[in-house]
Specification:
It is a single chain. The chain is of the alpha/beta class. It has one domain: Rossmann fold (3-Layer(aba) Sandwich). The chain contains 11 helices and 8 strands. An 8-stranded mixed sheet has the order 1-7-8-6-5-2-3-4, with helices on both faces. α10 links the parallel β5 and β6. α4 runs parallel beside α7. The longest helix has 13 residues. The chain is globular and about 50 Å long. GO terms for molecular function: methyltransferase activity. Keywords: Methyltransferase, Transferase. One of its GO terms (biological process) is methylation.
Amino acid sequence: MSEILRVLKTFVAYLKRPDLYPELGRKIVKNTVNRGNAFKGKDKTNSWAASKSISQQEVISQLFGFEMSAFKTDFQEVLRNSEQKEKDCPIKMGGAGALELIYYSCEFTKAQHVIETGVAYGWSSLAALLSLEKRNGTLYSSDMPYLAQDGDQYVGCVVPEDLKKNWKLFRFADKESLPKIFAETASFDILHYDSDKSYNGRMWAYDEMYVRLRKGGVFISDDIGDNSAYQDFCEKNNIDTKVVEFEGKYVGVFIK
């Protein structure tokens, strides 16, 4: 699909969804007036992240006291079936992230309430739900509809049906989804951010989510090298964060 056709198709899809008009307005501003916002402080933060980064295995051991190799052994069949579902999916979405980090953060906190932003195939959702089902906990997910790809039916496709009973999926932009989620649950054990990549979008969501993270809860943010929002947030709040280098990108994680 050409870029012009993709933009046109997306715009028409927005017009058909009045509930998404607020996000359409934000998108227009972000892509015109605030175009540089997505990369604000990127060089500074990539240098900072590189100087701090360690492996996912080291972080899981240091923060949570687990050996991460057990994850792929314990859930071998589930992961194999989910990988096949991704291969069979006719549209391309975001791939799997640091699944072990998410799973063992849930195990460490004995999580009952987890919130994530960004779903796509549902790999991070799967990692959280594999832990949550042990305690009959709930995963609350915010995910913007895939307006240009007609891909809504495939969102979360790698999550097995038997795990979906512990999952509540909100299909709006974060600024609409998060207030709805907070109205249902006031405190969370795990926060996983992987949605709006802009500096302003991150800073708004980080602030909103952090105050609802319980003491001893775990905060995880993907792709922190896109701009300096995560670094600035941690410095503003005097947070000592770990940085994971994962497949050429950086993930931030800390215990509150």
